[in-house]
Design brief:
69% helix; single chain
Length: 51
């Protein structure tokens, strides 16, 4: 996992299981954010491939 691009302590805590456990809402929000980022980067990739 690359932590350099997105040095987010919440992210690191969730994935490494370290530190205080964030609330379920915070985790859900972060996952939604990450999924949105993934989807937008995938869309950009397919757009550049389609050209």
């Amino acid at each position: 996992m690359e932590t350099a691009k997105n040095p987010n302590p919440l992210c690191v805590n969730v994935f490494q299981g370290g530190g205080p456990v964030p609330s379920k809402e915070a985790v859900t929000e972060k996952w939604a954010e990450m999924i949105a980022l993934l989807e937008s980067s995938q869309a950009e990739a397919s757009n550049s491939l389609g050209r």
